[in-house]
Amino acid sequence: MNAGGLGETRERDEETAPGNNPVEAQRPRNSISSFIFISFILFLLTNHNGAELVAQNQYRDALRSYNWQLGNYSAWLNGTESNFTLPETEPLLEPLIHSFVAPGNELNPSTSSYYSNITGYIQCTLHFHNITTPHSFNSSEMPLPAWAPLADSLMKGANMTELVERVSVGGWNLSAPKKLGWNGAEKFAPTSWRFNSSTPREDVAMVHGRMDMTDPNTGAEFRLTFEGVHFLKNGSVYGLAEPGDISPDIRLLPGVVPQPYKNLTAQLVEPEMARRVARLQAQLDSGTMDFSVINDDQSQSRPRCSLTLFMQLKPTSIPRDRMRELEAEMLNPTGITTVKDPGIKIEGVLVSKECGFVWELQDGEGVRSAAWFRMVTTYAGIAALVYLCLLGLLARQMNVSNTPTNLSRLSRWSFLTQALADSIFFAGHITFAVVTEGKPSVSLAAPAFLACLLFVYEAQFAILIFQIQAPEDSAPVPAPAAARQAGESGDASQQSEPGVPSPNVSSAPSLSDRIRSIYSRVTSHPQFKLWFTLAVFIVFVIRISIYPPLALFVLGGMYAGLWIPQIYRSARRGRTSGMNMEYLVGTTILRLAIAYYFLAYKGNILDIEAKEWFWPLAAVLVAEVLVIRLQELFGPAFFLPKRLSNVPTYDYHPPIPLPDPEAPEQSLGDCAICMDAILVDPVNSKRARSSDGKEPGDLDLGGLLNRVSRGASGGRKNYSLAPCHHLFHTECLERWLAIKNICPQCRRPLPPL
């Protein structure tokens, strides 16, 4: 019988085993749903909304067009039949250009030289001139500029209706920009020439790039794409420019250079076109197409104004061989000592006959790309060191403020402000690294990572402060007496009508009630305000990162009020900040150093103009640090009037009646933490009664506090009465408040001890 029972048990166990139970066996996934899911993922990974096919078609069309243009241009150079004809040059255009900027001359190589490669970044001051105004008939007493007669002759007979239509496309104010950013790349002539030369030319180079302008009133950006020729001997650059990202036709470059350079420029254009065609063909064959070519640039509204470009380098006082040595050291650093880099200085002019205006470029200063990349790397190293120091100071402050008592003194808004600033710096460094590419982008990863790490720790510390200080804002618990009265009144009402049953009214809540209930549940969450604030901060950071001037202005405003929340909390709570002076002063100095680099230093990598409001900002921030220090010396509310400086504080040691002297145990009660009795020294109690004749219940506060002790020893304030009327030993409460700032019995918030 036992054997049979064991056998039945074993069979039941085998049937109910997980591996043999057909009910609990995992059903195979439907193959159709898996196939659809995998296909959807592959579609998301490989789909470019048709971008790849569009890019291939655009590349093929561009390649076909370039081959056709190259063939016609080569035939034109050979003097055979061709569909290409170089437009006639406007004879008044060159004199008008040189009336603004004089052409350069060849220099003595032993005493002076020009930069041979202007690949880099240049900032110029921009001046707008309207050349459609008939200056010759101007009746003002102001003397006419030298270019006025030439402009009148050039624009004579112009169709003003068509001119206004070209300029007004897109509603862009051409006279608004005051600054122009020039970003160009230069390439020497190829090693093979169309006609008779097999050696590379070192006196001429092709230049291409873009020029960016911004309307200071609306923030609208305007871009020009240019192609040009740089003649190294006299430092002159001739070229063409078109609005947008569409490059000008480089076959027209021979028509804008002076007559002695036309043949040389024509020979230079053909191999450059062949090189671009070969590069385009290689991209199409390898499939490494740039999807950025797919844009609506042609459909965007921009003024249809073709421009003629002339730029002239200013000579330097450095001999040519020393200048070549300097440029070689910039490209390939070897550590040798060279002359100081004088920087690129340039002036120029942009003329548009079709639209009747001139942009004059003055006071152009810039740096070579290699020197700028070195500046970026140097900045990245210094910024990483600054953020590392900030991270160390924060870690030391977090180690000091690791108790609820110290955390209750701090203001979370000061740390949230720093977290927001660091998130903006993180986004800016990442964006800058993506834009720069190359080696500088690798160096910018270090400050970006440290800024992100600092943001995480500051946000975490702010959340911890919020959690500790959350009971301060909690609503008081309703008194139980009210509930008791309500219950009694309810019982009375029920007793008043015993024969009438209470109606069961249950109606479905309306939509507004549901929405109100959901809203109250969400907003009543303890951390709702904090997470909502962080979400708004993140959206705010993403939005302002798109427009750097706004980001700098916001950062300046946040830095100006960095320590104001801490000053306010200290004065309101009647307690000092508890911040280490090492952290306070160090953080202020380091953050001002970062702000100084971008807001006051003219040689910053972003070429941001110095802001006059930086120095008042720094003075305000230093004054805030001084106020916090004075709060520690003279009191948190020393700067307030006396009627406002008295901060009400809770007294943990109020007068308490002593127990009956006839009682066997002289105790005020049990401690709510250690559960031991809070004893009163009977000797002191009797001595007090016999000396002054007072009853124990009539003792004042001073006499009582000298008689209450834990056990039978001590003469200090060893009892503490919380606002919730729970009694503790002072030592026990001090140890408890070092961990939490709520009552261990009722969980209500406790004020500082």
Automatic annotation (TrEMBL):
The chain crosses the membrane at residues 371-394, 415-436, 442-466, 552-571, 583-601, 613-630. Residues 491-510 have a biased composition (Polar residues). Its EC number is 2.3.2.27. SMART domains: RING. It is found in: Endomembrane system. Residues 477-486 have a biased composition (Low complexity). It is a multi-pass membrane protein. It catalyses: S-ubiquitinyl-[E2 ubiquitin-conjugating enzyme]-L-cysteine + [acceptor protein]-L-lysine = [E2 ubiquitin-conjugating enzyme]-L-cysteine + N(6)-ubiquitinyl-[acceptor protein]-L-lysine. PROSITE patterns: ZF_RING_2. InterPro entries: DUF2921, HRD1_E3_ubiq-ligases, Znf_RING, Znf_RING/FYVE/PHD. Coiled coil: none annotated. Keywords: Membrane, Metal-binding, Signal, Transferase, Transmembrane, Transmembrane helix, Ubl conjugation pathway, Zinc, Zinc-finger. One of its GO terms (cellular component) is endomembrane system. Pathway: Protein modification; protein ubiquitination. One of its GO terms (molecular function) is ubiquitin protein ligase activity. Its main location: membrane. Residues 1-26, 477-510 are annotated as: Disordered. It holds the Pfam family DUF2921. GO terms for biological process: proteasome-mediated ubiquitin-dependent protein catabolic process. This is RING-type E3 ubiquitin transferase. It comes from Gloeophyllum trabeum (strain ATCC 11539 / FP-39264 / Madison 617) (Brown rot fungus). The lineage of its organism: Eukaryota, Fungi, Dikarya, Basidiomycota, Agaricomycotina.
